[in-house]
């Protein structure tokens, strides 16, 4: 029976590359000259921390980081920015990276698939959702349906089997 998996995977290497490109752009920009600016990735916690001298710089660095992620093909729905925190001389902003489907999001996606007019079956299997049907056309219609919806996480479709 034809089937495919719905997953939400973050390419951490592309995030690293985007951070490297952000650092290069910060080094060449005149408005950041002489400022103490860092962009750091914590692989274990899956967070990016931006440290700047003031809030305006933090906003600009975040915009540069977003632009670099778009260039690298990383969906911006995987970003969960937190409030900026000022401490003395520096301003810090932490950005959580969403990787994988949590149970609530998986339930929302599965419910949306079941409530659609499509006659496909969806089952949650850990951090992925398996969708199956007898016809490939119905599976492709399900993919198109899910691409139109927004669940707050980037979705990828893989493991398509005939």
Polypeptide structure, described:
- By secondary structure, the chain is an alpha+beta fold.
- The protein folds into two domains: 3-8 and 100-161, Alpha-Beta Plaits, CATH 3.30.70; 12-97, 2-Layer Sandwich (Alpha-Beta Plaits), CATH 3.30.70.990.
- 37% of the residues lie in helices and 28% in strands.
- It is built from four helices and nine strands.
- The strands form two sheets. Strands 2, 3, 4, 5 and 6 form a five-stranded antiparallel beta sheet that branches.
- A hairpin with a 2-residue loop joins strand 5 (85-87) and strand 6 (90-97).
- Helix 1 (12-28) crosses helix 2 (55-71).
- The longest helix has 17 residues, at 12-28.
- The mean pLDDT is 90.
Quick structural overview:
With 162 residues, the protein is an alpha+beta fold.
Strand content: 25-35%
Main pleated-sheet profile = 5 strands, antiparallel
Oligomer: single chain
Class inferred from helices and paired strands: alpha+beta
CATH superfamily of the largest domain: YajQ-like, domain 2
Mean pLDDT: 90
Radius of gyration: 20 Å
